Amino acid sequence: MTISALIERIEIDGSPATAEALLWPALVQTGHFTAMQVRGGKVRGLDRHLARLDAATRELFGHALDGEHVRDLVRHILRDDITEASVRVYVHAPEGEPSLMVTVRPPMELPATMEGRAQSLRSVPYQRPFAHIKHLGGFAQARHADLARRAGFDEALLTGPDGAVSEGAVTNVAFFDGREVVWPDAPHLSGITMQLVEAALPAAGLPTRHAPVTLDGLPSYAAAFVTNAWGVRPVRRIDDIAYGIDERLMATVAGAYEAVPWATV
Predict the structure, then answer these.
(1) What is the number of other CB atoms lying within 10 angstroms of the CB of residue 190?
(2) pLDDT score at 1
(3) Residue 126, Cβ density class (10 Å: 0-12 exposed, 13-18 middle, ≥19 buried)
């Protein structure tokens, strides 16, 4: 499937993308983005997406980014004919001022069962630079993810010195020790779904914490799961370490996430 078949619309600052306007985002990798799932014109964690975009724009370009402006651009590209979509908002600064490219792709739906969602991860010795920013130019993580898939895995698990687990190539990862959910505290991007799940779990009776997680300590955990803009998925295997799918755990995690209210764009 080609990129042109996948992307339904591209707009830059509210106008249809032209070849000239696409030159900067095509050739310059200084920028950042957020990815969200839209259902019925609404997004889970919209305020967190807007806060992420503003914080990264301030850090990279020295400018604030008005959340209402972002919402206007997303509403504009969706218009009245698209209510279900995968939307990405990219921020560049070709003239020193933030410029926003918004893309629309078909919505992503995970399999209904946790068995169908289960992921296998292959550990690789790599950590993203400036990991706290959802930045562009992720060749290394994309290459590791591709190699993991070629080796029969679903995703790459990024690790640092001494086997410190940080995150997946396109996911956050969490582990269950039988009592608490443990998020690795190595450098990582705090994904929006991760933020929503972490905030919601204590009220569901499941405490969470951040702590060092290493490859040699993985057998001590009872279960694991990953999160990203698509939702939550159990982990069935990391390298040669097998995990059972804890249906009770995943029901709690998925239920906490799905209970998060949707906000109108």
Answers:
(1) 15
(2) 43
(3) middle
